[in-house]
Amino acid sequence: MKFILITKKQLGLIFCSAVAIIAAVAVSVSALTAADRKLPIYGVKTDKKQIAISFDAAWGADDTDTLIEILKKYNVKATFFVVGDWVDKYPEEVKKLSDNGHSIQNHSNTHPYMTKLSTEEMVAQLKNCNEKIAKLTGETPTLFRCPYGDYNNAVLNATESIDMKAIQWSVDSLDWKDTATADSIAKRVIEKTTNGSIILCHNDADHTPEALPTILETLQKNGYEFVLIKDLIYNDNYTIEHDGTQVKNSLQTAGNNSSAE
After folding, report:
1. Distance CA 245, CA 231 (A)
2. How far is CA 93 from the centre of its chain?
3. Under a CB-based contact definition with an 8 Å cutoff, are residues 46 and 196 in contact?
4. Residues 228-245: tens digit of each pLDDT
5. Mind telling me the catalytic residues?
């Protein structure tokens, strides 16, 4: 019987080689996974000082009139992602928001975790909500925000299958947190906003109406123009980068360095 003697040095080299091979395989798998993974739009790369503020509406509606008045005071149009069940409960609020020039978009029909649904159920969630919104506003939504920010390739494919775009956010106000205050909400949004940012707020968070005037006034003084998300994003000839930033293909080749949060 023959025995192979391996020195500590040789053992060390074998170990290092094995680690290198494992690392290489992991990087390859990671790169493949990243390349295959689809992303919604988190923000937009643009030279223009344009930004969009959005509100998710799924539960209450007590602050609707207050939000409308504040937005009107600063001449700001916002995008409201509404749940179909919310539309059922508050049709007058939906109509009021639409009549004041705000964009009413889709936040699913019943606010489920979309990734737990079949493709047919996903599409039904989108279409049912779209129909409710269109009936009240006369316009069919083209944008969808996943409940809980929960998505995967199947959800994004279902969204695209009915010619809609999935929208996330690049600036989270965290207005939904119990520890949030008007000052903390405003400070966070103002500090994190850059060209092409999409800001997330909620229509019924406790301190959002109090924080909103400071947010709007300060960002406008900083030279930002508020636009609707549908007017901020690119509709064709674009790429979505690894962080969810939507980039116009011509900007990529031009080497534009400005980016959303």
Report:
1. 15
2. 23
3. yes
4. 999 999 999 999 999 999
5. 56, 202
